[in-house]
Design brief:
Layout: H1 3-10, E1 50-55, E2 64-67, E3 72-80, E4 88-94, H2 97-106, E5 111-112, E6 118-120, E7 125-128, E8 138-142, E9 153-162, E10 167-169, E11 175-182, E12 196-202, E13 214-216, E14 226-237, E15 242-246, H3 249-256, H4 258-261, H5 263-267, E16 271-277, H6 290-307, E17 311-315, H7 335-348, E18 353-357, E19 385-387, E20 406-407, E21 411-412, H8 421-429, E22 434-438, H9 447-458, E23 462-464
Parallel strand pairs: 1-10, 2-11, 5-9, 12-14, 12-22, 14-16, 16-17, 17-18, 18-19, 19-20, 21-22
Antiparallel strand pairs: 1-3, 3-8, 4-7, 4-9, 6-8, 9-11, 13-23, 14-15
Helix pairs in contact: 1-2, 6-7, 8-9
């Protein structure tokens, strides 16, 4: 791909040249924001004595805005390669040509948010002080508009310009695109603490409609924000000679009957994703070649679009990589091929969730996670959320990911009454952004762990409706 197309491709996400070996230092992960503290000028097309780059302090999760009946806001910041010794005046402007370039480079057809619906704080003016390298956040607001169709995602393309002598803009980091999902009257599951709860449902034996029956008492909002349908598989398809997605009869039934099993959750405000899991034949999410990853991402996009899903979740288990020879389209398994697949999925579906269960090669062979960039993009800019294994309390691993995108102390609810209130409290106290619970079942047998989530994550009480949904297929 030529340089022009590559720069357009990067605009899916808010990449900054960060990373080990790239000459850029990062602030400590104890902050909710990964703040660049220097820029590698040798890799950023220097213009003038100093350069600046645009980035999103919330990572991938902050690049998608959900527009309902009230205005919605996002944020951007600017970082300089070094303190300029003078005040630096910058301006963010609406530029629809950016979205046209993105669509051409990625074979998409997003329309732009009308400029009349966009409000830039201070008319887009950004100021960096003489002795600092980081601007204050600038709010980007989108207002509801009759010109925006409910159920459609629009792009909000923005470009950075400089009005200060001696300060130029990085040619590869001079722009960004917010993805605005117009939801209309669809309710929000957001609770006051700002944290979210991710719930897995094993659909081989359980009905996802049970996610509807748990709510928070004080605000009557659903307890769960994201429901992962567990699970479709990645497999070698012998008759086609390729790696592909396999839907078992239970998953296929849920998807084929989305109006019964998926739409009610979405109508309540929850987002519904499909988990991809290994299946014991040597192929998996962590050993695809670059080309196979692109093709697999295209297949996932077709499934997501066909069944109206909100994203894809990834779980690198049960692939048995070392027990089989490397098949066509596969490479030696590792964190880098896994990160490549996640990147390709986000590139094709920038407005959809990409989430990761922290196991297998999400940890990397060295335990350092996704500590590499893919085509110059940080993993924190193409992974929305990641969550640790049951009981694990380690800090953020992935390059460029904030604590608001990370969850620790995940709960396995298979044995129903078991919980771990200490871990749940730690998760919130340390500033992480989400709590994961696994294996939701029918009935109220899991009221203890779910009650602890409501109490310690949301300062609330859990309410079970009294209604159970058995597997009915």
């Amino acid at each position: 791909m030529d340089c022009f197309a590559m720069n357009c491709k990067k605009n899916i996400i808010w990449n900054l040249w960060l990373g080990c070996g790239a000459g850029l230092a990062l602030a400590a992960c104890t902050s909710d924001e990964i703040i660049p503290s220097s820029v590698d000028g040798g890799r950023m097309e220097i213009v003038g004595k100093n350069i600046c780059a645009l980035y999103n302090p919330a990572g991938a999760a902050g690049a998608t805005l959900e527009l309902r009946t009230e205005p919605v806001t996002g944020e951007v910041r600017v970082v300089l390669s070094a303190a300029a010794g003078q005040a630096v005046d910058l301006k963010l402007v609406y530029d629809e040509t950016l979205l046209e370039e993105y669509n051409e480079a990625n074979a998409t057809d997003f329309e732009a948010v009308p400029a009349s619906a966009v409000r830039l704080e201070a008319d887009g003016a950004l100021l960096v002080g003489p002795q600092t390298t980081l601007s204050d956040p600038l709010q980007v607001r989108v207002d509801p508009s009759d010109d925006l169709a409910v159920g459609t995602t629009y792009g909000l393309p923005l470009r950075l310009t400089s009005g200060t002598d001696g300060v130029g803009i990085s040619e590869s980091e001079d722009s960004c695109i917010f993805w605005v999902k117009v939801l209309g009257e669809r309710p929000s599951t957001q609770k006051d603490t700002g944290m979210i709860t991710v719930c897995y449902v094993e659909v081989n034996g359980n009905n996802p409609l049970n996610a509807l029956e748990w709510s928070c008492k004080r605000n009557d909002k659903p307890l769960f924000d994201i429901v992962n349908l567990f699970a479709a598989n990645i497999n070698w398809i012998e008759e086609e000679g390729r790696v592909g997605v396999v839907l078992n009869p239970n998953v296929q039934h849920i998807l084929a009957n989305r109006d019964k099993y998926i739409k009610p959750l979405q109508d309540a405000g929850m987002r519904v994703s499909l988990t991809i899991l290994g299946n014991g034949d040597g192929t998996g999410v962590a050993n695809l070649s670059d080309e196979a990853a692109r093709l697999f991402a295209e297949e996932l996009r077709a499934i997501v679009e066909s069944y109206g899903l909100d994203g894809v979740d990834f779980d690198d288990e049960y692939s048995s990589y070392s027990q089989f020879p490397i098949r066509p389209g596969c490479v030696e398994y590792g964190a880098a091929p896994y990160a490549r697949l996640l990147y390709e999925v986000k590139r094709l579906m920038p407005d959809k969730l990409v989430t990761v269960y922290q196991i297998g090669q999400a940890m990397g062979r060295d335990g350092k996670g996704f500590n590499m960039m893919i085509d110059g993009v940080r993993p924190g800019d193409f992974i929305d959320y990641a969550y640790t294994d049951y009981g694990a309390l380690y800090d953020v691993l992935h390059l460029g990911m904030t604590r608001s995108q990370w969850g620790v102390g995940s709960l396995d609810m298979t044995y129903e009454g078991e919980s771990n209130p200490e871990n749940i409290q730690y998760n919130r106290r340390e500033g992480y952004g989400l709590q994961m619970v696994y294996n939701l079942k029918a009935g109220n047998g899991q009221k203890t762990p779910l009650g602890d989530v409501a109490k310690y994550i949301y300062d609330d009480e859990v309410v079970w409706s009294g209604k159970s949904h058995a597997k009915d297929w």
